[in-house]
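Two entries, shown back to back:
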Amino acid sequence: MFKSIKSIKNFGIFKDTKMNAGQPFLQFNLIYGFNYSGKTTLSRIFRAMQQGHLHEDFASASFTLERNDGESVSSAVLEPIENLRVFNSDYIKDNVNFINSSVNPVLIVGEPNIELEAELKHIEEVDVPAKELERDQYKKSANKKQAEKDNRLKIVGQVVSALNVLGGSTFTRTGVTPLLTQVTADDLKTSAELDQLIDSARSKQADTVPPASISIPDITTLLGNIESILVESVTRTTIEELEANAVLRKWVEDGLKHHHEPEVCHFCKNPLEQLRIDELNAYFSDSYKNLSKKINHAIKQVQEIKLTHSIPKATNLYSDLQQDYDSLSDQIQPLDERVTVIKNSLIEALEDKRERMEEVVPFSPSDYPMPDVSKLTWMLNGQIKEHNRRSLQHGAEQTKARNAIKRHYAYVETSEYDHPGAIKQIQAFNDEYQATQTEIIRLNTRVREIKAELRNVKQGADNLNDNLRLYFGKTDIEIQPIGETYQFVREGRPAKHLSDGERTAIAFAYFITELEDESLKDTKPIVYLDDPICSLDSNHIYNVLGIIKDKLNHEKIEQLFISTHNFEFFNLVKTWFDYYKLVKRDGEVVKPKRAEFYLVNRKQNASTIEQLPKNLKDHKSEYAYLIAKIKEAVQNPERFDAVSVQAYVRKILEVYFTFRFNKPFRANNNSFLEKHLLIGIENSSAKATTLYEFINDRSHAQSISFGVELPDALQAQLQDVWDIIDEAIRTNDKPHYDAYYA
């Protein structure tokens, strides 16, 4: 590894340069500089060390570099450094002949092995494509059958979900699949059963209800009393009129109660004879009266007999229980009617006895059985108990109903589609697919074996083509070994009229491929890359960085130098190199610093290698750096040339107008500056003219690049111009001013 530059004298723009910014070179070194600053010149120093001789344009120059082992490399005594490789414009000119569309071979090309080439061609063009087609067809068939099977299971889940019985849960294909092997014919439900399950699954938890009660009084004693009344008889005198007319008899009987010592009839006011009163009292004797009272009391008791019940409403029960419950409830009315019939029969028997008090009226209690309500009560309470059980176990019952619904539809699916058969078909397709894939792997292994045998034949060409395809997407240009050279071919003919970007891509791919040359076998190279992205678009800049990171990482190289003027590429590499910064933990170094950053800085007619300024290192754009340079030029004008400073000012305004006003800067004149940049500024018109003339009429550089011939002194107007810009941005864009200008 190189440690530092001890001196460079009269090597192009490097007149008398010592050290490299006081910072030793590390494993990774990034060098930034504008065009014409001396980057390529610096790379030529390294190329001279690679080749062992100075470039003819620098015959009188001298340099000395120090290596890590303490040895020095001097231009006075140059010998080729075997592991040093430099990519720059000289390398391209020496190795790539764009006129003849050829490059020097990386390896010596031997005679081709015709048999291996033929076998390789047949495997790659016939065997592998055929097997891949066969494999893909098996995979397609397996996927198609799997999709058909999965879709049916998905539909089962959708059908159940559409019933709105799942609550917050889901029923998808994964839920249906295990049921297919679990369900039996017992899981198939009738329409009525399914409706009942759906109702249960949808139902909300109901309140428990009290038990039903039905009662009829025990009339066994009453029947005994009635029997004793009906067999009791009384003896009395006979009065024909009363015997013949029960109503009259009743009327007279009641009237006697009001004529204990009467002389006059209270009804007709006629005199009453004692004889008549005695006759009537004889007819209505005490025994008669007592029996009559018994009859009246018994009738009153019979009339008090009734069926009583307390039955919860059917609507309080779960819907599937309501029909049976209603049917049972309807049986209460017939029972009540039977009780009424018995009551009426008993009253009728007692009234009949009243007409035949002197007779013994036959009576059998067994002829008047009261209905048994215990069974009906038990059946009603059975429904209520079932309801209450469900209410108390609503969650479990609902889950049971949902599972039954799922199993029903899963069983229906098994009866309509042969899922086990489909699984066997899918497995068969997959087995064939795997067998074919195994054969393809075997064929590809054979391809690699053949290519390994042929590698010594065209290793370099293959690798070069791979690099072109992988990193630059170049499939239209192919490198072919022709005789003692590699020729790049497009559509079977030598590739002519290559673009600058294509030339850079081919040259850099060739350089990277050359690093795999046998001359570097088991050796880590020192690599210097000077603007490897020249003429490439932004997309390919990323590709170049990709190949560098892949081929030239810390495990594969001894030391890497990259120089560039492209700020986008500079930032990408800087971001990568930041990975190799010093890392400490608790004061201990856990990862040593491996990367350093430099600036090739041209002042007047000489360049130096300096440490990368903080503004360039910490920011993602040149903008902050250019502002810092202008401030430095204002303070120390003797260190700068007019052309570069005027270019700095122009570039600053170009960038500012782009993001501040979204307008191009160069297409506008001083009136545009007055309307936008200098709005609200005193004497804006005069200041706009001063600013415009400084950056246009008196500027000899058209971009940020340095000119070749530089004026001797800085324009006197720089202080005034910078004051104008400073005032304008401070006044009209304070946040931006504070961020960049303050």
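entry 2 starts here
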Amino acid sequence: MKKKISLIFLIVFTTQLIIACCDCPEPHKYQYKFEYLSAFNLDNSEANTVISESPIPRSAYGIKLQIGLRELSLEDRNHFSLFSQANAMCCFCGPDTTITPRDTITSLTITTTNRFDDAHPEGSNIAGLFKVLRHGNYVSIDSIIKQPSIYFKSTATEFIELYLFTPPKQAGEYSFKVDLALSNDTHLVAITKPVNLQ
């Protein structure tokens, strides 16, 4: 009799445990679209990088991109997903909100608005001379294009820091036009304010 009671208790407890483990809320899935682009001059010559309109050492120049994002409508939440079921069975619930890009960045060009050096006259794309600071490492621009950002909470802006790894040989005033080409055949364009690179 005691064995039967223990068995019934064990079955009830196990059932409650499984139900609790499987009680993951349906995730909220959104998309975001790119709204606007702003570009600022960065001075990386000190311990802290700052936005600057003052003269900047050529070897410490960077561009900070601010990309405006807008959340779009909620996707269908009543879909079947083996992944979410697997999460539930292992007593782990994934993020309750996921925001993915509706359109992706297909290319990022940085055009010099005046002569940069002998190999790069006015109008040249010099994006290859820049690297992106991502999680403490400098990576190529192409690497961030291939890995679009996914967010797990509402985000109104994304920031990208680009650093000039091959500065111009001549000091002078420079300005750069940044063009983000999107997969929906639109472009976001911003131009940095003219800055004196010393």
